[in-house]
Amino acid sequence: MGKFKLSALMLALVAANSAMAATEEERTSAKEIDPELEVIEVRGFSRSLIQSLNQKRFSDTVSEQLSADDLGALPDVSMADALTRLPGISAVRTGGQAAEINIRGLSGGFVFSTLNGREQVSTSGSRSIEFDQYPSELISSAAVYKSPKASLIEGGVAGTVELQTASPLDNDQQHKFTANVRGMYNDRASEVFDATEYGDRISFSYQGKFLDDTLGVALGYARLFQPSVATQFIGFAYNGNKDVDGLANDTDGPADNPANEYISEGFELQHLGGEETRNGYLTSIEWAPTDNFKLKGDAFLSRFDSESFARGFRVKFGGPSAVYANPVLDGNAVIGGAINRTSNSFTRVEIVNDDNQDFDEVDSYGINADWQITDRLNVNADVSLSRAKSNFRNGLLWALVAEDATVENPVFDTNVSLNYQLNGLNLPDVGFNQADAFSDIDRVMVSKYGIYPYENEDEVKAFRLDFKYELENNWFSSIEFGARYSDREYSNNRSVFEYGNDGAFSSTQPPLRLTDDMTTVVDWQGEFSYFPSYLAIDLDKALNAWFPNGIPQPVQTWGNADGVVDLDGDGEPDAQGYTTNYSWTMLQSGSVYEEVVSAYLMLNIDTEIGKLPVTGNIGIRRVDTDQSATVLENVGGDPQLGAQYIVDDNGIVNDLYAPSVLGIKYTDYLPSLNLNFKVSDATQIRFAAAKVMARAPINRLAGDASASVNNDGEINGSSTNNPFLKPFYADQYDISYEQYFEDTDGALVVAAFYKNIDSFIDTVAIENFDFKGNGFNVPEYIVDPVSGEQIETTNGVYTTAVNNAKGGYIRGIELAYTQVFSFLPSPFEGLGINASYSYTESEVQSITDLGGDSVSQDLPGLSNNVFNGTLFYSYENFETRLNVRYRDDFVSEQVAVNEQVVNFDAETVIDFQTSYQFTDSFGMLLQVNNLTDEPTQSYFGTTSKTGTTQFFGRQFYLGFTYNH
Locate the TonB-dependent receptor-like beta-barrel domain: which residues (predicted)? Predict the structure, then answer.
């Protein structure tokens, strides 16, 4: 085998439209550039790696690239899985699969994402898109920009992820058809009663060129149907305290012994099962009637439907009024003991049979016109629409143990005692005095059913105009400038339906007597086999029996439908009697508006310093933002302050609130610099510096603010979110050394980065807040009801979310090594490795008290050490690879009764794939994801306070590919 110079090959590839010289036409073109060059044909995974290195090498920013041969060539289930193969990128697993990505120690909220250069909105209610909604079969390439340039849309402090769909006129074949058909199996599904074990993954794509290559068409469809399976233990936060060791009044005890110990709310033991169906659609049409003009329109649609159940136990310890015996302490937190119910506690075991449905829609449309007006001037215009809808229906079914469910008026069994012992990251030891009753239909009764929908809609319309003018001088190759306008609207609607009581049996809404045809006794298996059996309840049969006229639909309401309501949202009834406060469904529903006008100016550098070639860019981006949100302000019914009659879905009228819109405007300037020093043909050094910004999650701009005036005339208010939140800002610096191997395929990259982030979101109490100056409808005075005198109002405290948490640095190093051992003798020349390691640290800390004592925890998304390695081998028509992804401890959200930001333990996820190509067109593939069935495990502050232990199972894929 002759000498193989990668640098010469890459220059040949650039001349051949940056594609590998795999076709006869491309090989001929490469030889014409350098007749002495022996061009090696590289296929499959090796080809994708070299294409990615090629794109990274000639990029004008610090970036990572991911490339596929054709539509359908990426093997990953979603783009989240694919992106985790890149240096400095890790993923948070949801349901066992990568969903949110973290870049350089920052969570998904700091990641900005585009599709074909267009901003994407999300179904999550935040700005972080859910990458598992983007089928890898419909994406031809991806780039992660770690350093920005002025022409990129602002928004990524961690980085910007750019997804690209196919450009049919760039396809090297006149017509190309690709099909993938795979069956799927989850080996844990058999442990979960009524779970689906098998799934499938199917995709088709076509690319064609017509009318003398002036018209191109690309069509794609990708379907994923898969089981959603997990077996889990979830511990709840330590949100109470009690003197459990009797030392509260012991003056002779240790000085560091506080009066009370921290106690947890309880825990859950659950089987999760269900089905996920994702259908993705892609259409792209390109028209190039002349050499200097191209018009392209494309559409991408994703429909992701999930229907799942959660069955098992929810154990409530009962708060400080419960009796604790033989407590086991970890520091000042209770991690074990015996608990007994008292007349004042709510200690109980709930048998849960929950039903969740999530229907997500993602649409992205765009039209782009590119016109090379003269040899020097290029104009590009783009119009786009990105839209996302999410309809999440959270249905909860509670069942409790009765003394005797067969009698006419059953009584809730209050004889409840339990014992438990947490075992760190392992499963706990548990015991229940009612264990035999959990699977007995003569003891278990359905006591409550609730539906709690979250309906989100997010839409952004954008218009963009860019100009590029080629220059003739020794410093700058061209100048780019342009402007962009975007109009975004986000809305959230909450509603509720509840019937019954989850803590006892209601006399007015009595429990349901279960029958044999409604239930199945479920036994735990595997690691969970020592937990007591329970009743799985057929939801349809139970609810049809309980609601023979149909289940009422959830509504937005001020209170319950019997007229006893909480009108002012203070949790107290405004009429005699008891009420449940549902005013949150009205106050938490609303819209957020965001208009952004941005403009940029950028010079592309192409010069020499001494004899050292230097390329890159320098520029600045100006961003004007106008953000606002709807809000219902409690003005005490004063019509002069805008109070209106607001009718809910039940016809209940509330005249205390004034609808309003609150918000702010601000302007930012974002300079950026990217320099690439070409030390030699194979060596280059990059330096980048920039100011970057990332806006707060769109749902955190919601206007659930309220303000009220007390009898002394003092105005006070609060808000969980804040329409006045400004972006996160950071100054960042990057430097990297890139060595591309001359005699073999591959590269070595060493990079370092430093980010200084100004602040983070925190909830604080602002003294002497200017309510009127910030748009609140507040009176200038009130009238004393006794004396009739006017009392001038004064500003008090406003508790809200602000960009006030202390910022700080995030810094780290990244190492990436790619090697295709093409110099080895046959049959070993197809052996290769692609590996990366990153170390990240930060001084940013947040305070959490979920584990009892207030302790510091790291920035969400940050793992100090992240490793990703792929060992691959190909020989003739055979190819195989093994991928290992490791990240050490990190902080992220754990969803339980409420969202809990906790510490996650280190995890190692191993995937395996092998394939064989029977002909040039037909091949077979075997893929195993999560080969070792790695669980996710979390904890509160210390590993002894267990958070989550969740097993998802291995996913096996077997199928065939066809290309023609």
Answer: 441-931
